[in-house]
Design brief:
The protein is an all-beta fold and 362 residues long. The two termini are 33 Å apart. It has helices at residues 237-240, 247-251, and strands spanning 15-21, 28-31, 37-40, 52-55, 61-63, 85-90, 96-100, 116-121, 126-132, 144-150, 153-158, 163-168, 174-177, 193-194, 197-198, 211-216, 222-227, 232-236, 255-258, 263-268, 274-278, 283-287, 293-298, 309-310, 315-320, 340-346. The strands form 7 sheets. A 4-stranded antiparallel β-sheet has the order 1-26-25-24, with no helix packed on it. It is built from 2 helices and 26 strands. The radius of gyration is 19 Å and the shape is globular. It is 2% helix and 36% strand.
């Protein structure tokens, strides 16, 4: 297993304020081919506005892909509205994949029909397809966290109960893999600490987040995954895609990959570099494919950076939702403070076209 050595300092990088909002504590962002900033926030943060929105340069939010999808879940069928969105993923074609946990409360049970993946074409803002996650693959406290896509398969993490879900994008069938196995569950002794404060639940117990971040190798042949507190494992996707393997056989193909500290989110570049955001010290790190680790920036403004986004032009976007300040972790009283900010970090050593601001490579 690769372990982290002391991180050498990279050339000083500057944070640029890309967007800010007085309303939405976003934990996900994508910048589409039209240069629009698309952001989302889960309901358990206490936010009451559109679950997914385009935010303009003035901080104004417009429901995305339309107002109907952003209706109050209590007033419409859970299968045709966003119940509580946790992630937005942009694939290599530029299409958007929106992950709806289906659970209104953190740690709550997904409402019937609520857990789903919504595939959107941002060129037309048309919903291409909705993939409903059947109750048979969800557990009482499932929290479908994030998604990555290779070919005609999508891979998702269940951060609530601990499992990888494999979704067939052609027939919509879903298979639950590694259910409750050690490498998809947080270790009892691990702690999440954000700028000196441990993350505790309503009963003052340490919060444990099961398999949460995941990444695909640039060629799509290997899936990397692990609990929020680490360590990460790896498995070849050809084994995950093989429905003929049961979980015991599949587990024999899992290998240790990397020990990481608790992170808010990750992003993997086309060269295999892993960008990650340690929660303890408000930093952004890069691990090159050869294993060399460097710190790109450390700044107290980066309070729980969640799901960093690479735009393909040498920019890394950093949404700062301050999730540790949510009421769920503070005895019912939120300590989150507006404005909520989205920063852009210009990556050292990457050439950027003059006109690339806000665009996405294909």
């Amino acid at each position: 297993m690769t372990t982290l050595a002391a991180a050498p300092e990279a050339r000083s990088s500057t944070l640029h304020l890309a967007r800010q909002s007085m309303q939405m504590p976003w934990n996900a962002v994508a910048v589409d081919a039209r240069g629009r900033f698309i952001v989302s926030s889960p309901r358990w943060t206490g936010y009451k506005g559109p679950a997914v929105a385009i935010i303009d340069a003035h901080g104004q939010l417009s429901a995305y892909p339309d107002a109907a999808w952003n209706r109050d879940p209590a007033s419409a069928g859970a299968g045709q509205v966003f119940v509580s969105v946790n992630a937005i993923h942009e694939d290599r074609r530029g299409d958007l994949w929106i992950v709806d946990t289906g659970a209104l409360q953190l740690g709550g049970t997904p409402v019937p029909g609520g857990a789903k993946i919504v595939h959107v074409d941002p060129h037309s803002d048309r919903v291409v397809r909705v993939y409903h996650l059947p109750g048979a693959v969800l557990h009482a406290h499932s929290y479908i966290d994030d998604i990555r896509i290779h070919g005609r398969r999508a891979y998702l993490t269940d951060a609530g109960e601990g499992a990888i879900l494999v979704l067939d994008l052609d027939n919509g069938q879903v298979r639950r893999r590694f259910d409750g196995m050690p490498f998809v569950r947080a270790r009892a002794q691990d702690r999440i600490v954000v700028q000196g404060k441990p993350l505790l639940d309503a009963h003052d117990r340490p919060v444990h987040v099961q398999v949460d971040p995941l990444e695909l190798s640039p060629d799509g042949r290997v899936l990397y995954f692990g609990p929020l507190t680490g360590p990460w494992s790896q498995v070849e996707t050809r084994y995950l895609d093989d429905d003929g393997l049961d979980d015991a056989e599949l587990a024999r193909h899992v290998r240790p990959w990397l020990a990481l500290p608790p992170v808010g989110g990750t992003a993997m570049g086309p060269d295999g570099s892993l960008y990650y955001t340690p929660l303890a010290d408000a930093s952004v790190m890069r691990r090159n494919a050869d294993g060399q680790v460097s710190r790109l920036v450390q700044d107290r403004r980066l309070r729980w950076v969640d799901a960093p986004f690479l735009d393909g032009h040498g920019h890394l976007y950093l949404p700062v939702p301050q999730l540790d300040g949510a009421a769920a972790f503070n005895h019912g009283r939120s300590t989150m403070q507006a404005p909520f900010k989205l920063y852009r970090l210009d990556l050292p050593g990457v050439r950027r076209p003059r006109s690339s601001e806000g665009s996405v490579s294909r």
